Every structure is written in C-alpha cells, then in structure tokens.
Amino acid sequence: MSKLKIGFIGCGGIANQKHLPGMAQQKEYVDLVAFCDLIPERAEKAAKEYGTPDAKVYTDYHDLLADKSIDAVHVLTPNIAHCEITVAALEAGKHVLCEKPMAATTADAKKMLEARDRTGKMLTIGYQYRHFHENTVARKVVADGWLGDIYYAEATYLRRRGVPTWGVFTDKSKQGGGPLIDIGTHALDNTLFMMNNYDVEYVVGTSFEKLGRLLDPEHQGQVSFMGDHDSWNNETYDVEDSAVGHIKMKNGAVINLRASWAINMAEEAGGDNAAHVLLCGTKGGLDTLAGRVRLNHVIANQPTISWVGNQVRGFIPGFSQGPAPVSKEHDIWVKALRGEGDLFVTADQAFVVTKILDSIYYSSKHNKPVYFDAEGMPIFD
Ligand SMILES: NC(=O)c1ccc[n+]([C@@H]2O[C@H](COP(=O)([O-])OP(=O)(O)OC[C@H]3O[C@@H](n4cnc5c(N)ncnc54)[C@H](O)[C@@H]3O)[C@@H](O)[C@H]2O)c1
User: Fold this and answer.
1) Average pLDDT, the chain
2) Picking from 52-66, 180-194, 269-283, which range would have the lowest pLDDT averaged per residue?
3) Cβ(212)–Cβ(254) under 8 Å?
4) For residue 270, how far is its CA from the centre of ligand 1 (angstroms)?
5) Which atom of ligand 1 is nearest to the CA of 129?
6) 150-158 and 123-125 beta bridge pairing
7) Best mutation site among 18, 37, 74 for ligand 1, i.e. most ligand atoms within 8 A of its Cβ?
C-alpha cells in the first residue's frame, strides 16, 4: 500500500505539541504533504520541520482541500472554525481528524456528523486523554464488572489558577466558551466513555464569570503539567472562568461536571491538574489519579481500597510527564486510514459531549433545564 498523504489546517499550539510530532512517528505509512495557517510563517515552519521536501504551504484551506492527492486532514484551528473546515474537507473527499471539542455548538456538530454520513468519509475527534494510562485501566476495571451498575459519576477538571495565556482560549468569538468547553470536555468525554452511557434525559448548569475579569492577574498564574500558566489579560477575557453541570441520564444515572481555570478552591482535580473521573456503582467505585486508579470495593465484608496500575502517563515526548509511549491517537488513526482498524473516538460520542456542554451554557443563560428529545437532541426553546 502506498503512503497516505496528510494535510494540516491550523499550525499553532496543538499542531506542534501533538499532531506534527505524533504523525512524524507514523512516517512509515504517511507523508506530511500540506500545511495551512492564516499566519504563513506557522505553516512554513511546520512544513520545514515535518513536511516532505515538496510539501505545500497555504493560507487558504480551500486551496489545500483542492489537492485531490491528499487522503486526510487534521483540523487544528480554534473551535468556531471546526465545523466549516471539517464539512468542507469531508465534502472534498478527505478523512478528518478534528481537534476537540467537536464543535462549539450542537448545530455545528450536527452538520459535521451529517457531512460524515453523506460522504462516507471517516471523522474522529482529538480526545487523547482517553489514552492516558489511568483512563485505559479504569475502562478495563469497569468492563471487568468491578463496579456493577454505575449510577453516580463526577467529571472534574479544576484549576485554581490556570488560564491558558497562549492561543485564543479566552476569546469567546473564536472558542465559543472557556474552561467548560476546553478542559471540562475531556473529563466529560472520559466519563461518558467509561460509563458507556450516552443517553441523556436532561441537563442543568451554571457558568460563572467571576474571576477572569475581576482578578488582578499579576502573579496569579500557576505551574501545571502543561507548563507555566502565566498571568492573563483580564481586559480581553470574555469567557466563563468556571462552570458546573448536572447531567441526568435516561437510566437514572447522574453525572456532576465541574470545570475551572480560576476558582478559589484549594483542591484541584486529579492532583496534577488533569481530568478526574469518579464512578460509583452498586458493587464498587473508582476514581482516576495520574497513572493509576483507586478502586474501592469489598473483600471479606471489609471496605477495601485497591490501587490499580502504577505508571507514569504521557503520549508525546515533551508534552506530558515521564517516559512517553507512542501517540496512541495517531497510531489508531493511521491504522483506521489504512483499513486495519476502527476509530477509537467516534464523532457520535463526541457529538453527545458537545450537546451536553452546549446545554449547560444554555441552561445557565436561560435559567432552566434542557431536556433531550427521543432522538437525543437537546430541546432549546
Ligand atoms: N486535545 C487537546 O488536549 C487540546 C489542547 C489544546 C488545544 N486543543 C484544541 O486545538 C484547537 C486549536 O488550539 P490551539 O491551542 O492549537 O490554538 P492556536 O491558536 O495555537 O492555533 C490555531 C491555529 O489555527 C490557525 N487558524 C485559525 N483559523 C484558521 C483557518 N480558517 N485556516 C487556517 N488556519 C487557521 C491560527 O492562525 C493558529 O495558528 C482548538 O480547538 C483547541 O480546543 C486541543
């Protein structure tokens, strides 16, 4: 089989942290042939560092998509542009790996799903937290039946002070929201996937715009596993700084979701600032910590804690802590492109995450719950 030709649309933070080094590890199977960014220097730099000698550079993604030899593209732009570019790419006959969240709104995500179905091309979303060791272990613990029927869960990603000061994360017009859509999305995706429950009854939520603008950000940054969160610009900050959601599933299970970049809470989630999942079932419970899972269960009638797994996690050298395994996300993606395996993150699953996050914002704005209809669509009236 000849090598697949891959293009990249958006050559900013996540392209350089994850996709370019990740796909460079797949060079036995792929050629990185096209790079597009509104800022030409970014596309040129990516092409020089990762591209084939004849790699093309673009500033207009339509020109990249017009190249019929390209098999697949990665959509790595701010959230608001995911829908338009992904739909155009699918229509142009490309398979698409789009960054998370799938889209900023339910309506946009629906268009992407419809385009996937119309074109028959593959679409997956970049929820790489699923591959962190603790989350892989937690899924196996659930699948092996240690928890029984899961009826309560918490999906948490809390930073006390951790506003991203790179990219456009605090710009609502480009991202559609703040920590809920940026990091809460990972915690919720993991939780739904571990529960294997995507049937939502209703969502109630509140997002807070308290600290982002009010705090004097000088010296308020913190160091996290992602690096140094510097002080942020509180004059241009226009997204929420924290949000909570209560998600009732059709089978009666409940998920409480919390996300923040800035909140006056001493305990951050996950110990090292990572997405944290708590699951409570009829037989036992678990919560995820960096590299391992804490299982609470009963042995000989005694309440017992078992630590499952003890590995440092990571997925790309230099991005996360410790010795890094290969990029599972790209491994799975390239296998799927070669027809040798299935996608791991389906667009249908990511669509539910986007519907829930959109419903939390709606519920907060309109001060009421959002019910989901029989087709699984939120009723925004
Ligand atoms: N999976 C993760 O953990 C993770 C982490 C960070 C960011 N992300 C996601 O990745 C996406 C990009 O975030 P980022 O941090 O790389 O942002 P960024 O601002 O650093 O990079 C985005 C790039 O896209 C370019 N761009 C914008 N519109 C474009 C267009 N129409 N055509 C071509 N290029 C365009 C910008 O010029 C910029 O260089 C976001 O959706 C974000 O949520 C995911």
Assistant:
1) 90
2) 269-283
3) no
4) 25
5) 3
6) unpaired
7) 37
Atom of ligand 1 nearest to the CA of 166: 20
Q: Are 11 and 46 in contact (CB under 8 A)?
A: yes
- Is residue 251 within 8 A of residue 199, CB to CB? The reply is yes
- Count other C-beta atoms under 10 Å from residue 257's C-beta: 25
- For the domain spanning 4-125, the CATH number is 3.40.50.720
**What pLDDT score was predicted for residue 312?**
55
For the chain, give me the number of helices (H) and strands (E)?
13, 17
Question: Mutate which of 99, 169, 357 to test ligand 1's pocket (most atoms within 8 Å of Cβ)?
Answer: 99
Ligand 1 centroid – CA 280 distance (Å): 35
Question: Which CATH topology does 130-313+346-371 take?
Answer: Dihydrodipicolinate Reductase; domain 2 (3.30.360)
Model pLDDT, residue 321: 42
Amino acid sitting at position 307: W
- Strand runs (DSSP E) across the chain, as ranges? 4-9, 30-36, 56-58, 72-75, 95-98, 123-125, 150-158, 200-208, 222-224, 227-229, 242-249, 254-260, 276-281, 285-289, 292-299, 302-308, 370-371
More confidently predicted of 182 and 230: 182
Give the closest residue (by CA) to ligand 1 atom 8: 14
Domain ranges of the chain: 4-125, 130-313+346-371
Identify the band that residue 330 occupies on the pLDDT scale cut at 50, 70 and 90. Answer: very high
